[in-house]
Design a protein that fits this description.
Elements (H helix, E strand, L loop, with lengths): L4 E6 H7 L11 H9 L6 E8 L5 H11 L9 E6 L1 E4 L2 E4 L4 E4 L11 E4 L3 H11 L6 E5 L6 H9 L3 E6 L6 H6 L2 E4 L12
Parallel strand pairs: 1-2, 1-8, 2-3, 8-9, 9-10
Antiparallel strand pairs: 4-7, 5-6
């Protein structure tokens, strides 16, 4: 019987973690998917990310390319969430062990904003659970330990769990639950984007 594999991608994680290979390193999603297919066919792939509203032309073109089928693109289902901005007035200082006021150096009346990715973790969990009867192995490209409860539920219900990640920022809880870890750093040259 064929092992049906679902690959879920936290794009923010992969984008930030790829710089652990080198500051100018970028991987190619098509090459990465082809490399992953060397270990077995992939039933379905989802790419989840947060973008500004509206997305830039470059982001829009990239997301359209992700959806293109082979050989033009990797044929990845793309789910985008809006980046959330919230005002920030203070932050906790670890050394002082108290909150300190943040002020714009240009004008203290300026409003400082924190931009955060929202919705991606919930989207990953939702896809993993709603498709539970459609796959045997979950391949996760995320380092977020907040996903551990969902991963434990899946593995306790007979699903295999693999990670496809860089050697950076990966929760040890996720690592300890993985049946297999594909370290992208180990084959980084094979999946490098050529500009």
């Amino acid at each position: 019987m064929e092992d049906r594999r679902l690959w879920l991608i936290d794009a923010g994680y992969l984008f930030n973690a790829q710089k652990t290979v080198s500051p100018y390193y970028n991987f190619d999603y098509l090459k990465l998917k082809e490399k992953l297919k060397e270990f077995g066919e992939i039933w379905r792939t989802y790419y989840l990310n947060s973008t500004s509203s509206p997305p830039s032309d470059t982001q829009d073109s990239f997301h359209k390319w992700l959806k293109c089928g082979s050989p033009a693109g990797p044929g990845i289902i793309t789910k985008l969430y809006q980046l959330k901005s919230s005002p920030i007035r203070d932050e906790y200082c670890r050394d002082c062990q108290k909150k300190v006021t943040l002020v714009c150096p240009t004008d203290r009346n300026h409003t400082l904003l924190r931009t955060q990715q929202k919705g991606v973790d919930a989207g990953l969990v939702t896809l993993a659970l709603t498709n539970i009867n459609n796959y045997d192995t979950l391949i996760l490209s995320s380092g977020d330990g907040d996903l551990i409860d969902a991963v434990e539920y899946l593995t306790e219900n007979g699903k295999r769990f693999e990670l496809l990640v860089f050697k950076y920022g990966v929760s040890t809880d996720l690592q300890s639950r993985a049946d297999k870890i594909h370290w992208i750093n180990d084959f980084a040259d094979e999946v490098k984007r050529c500009d």
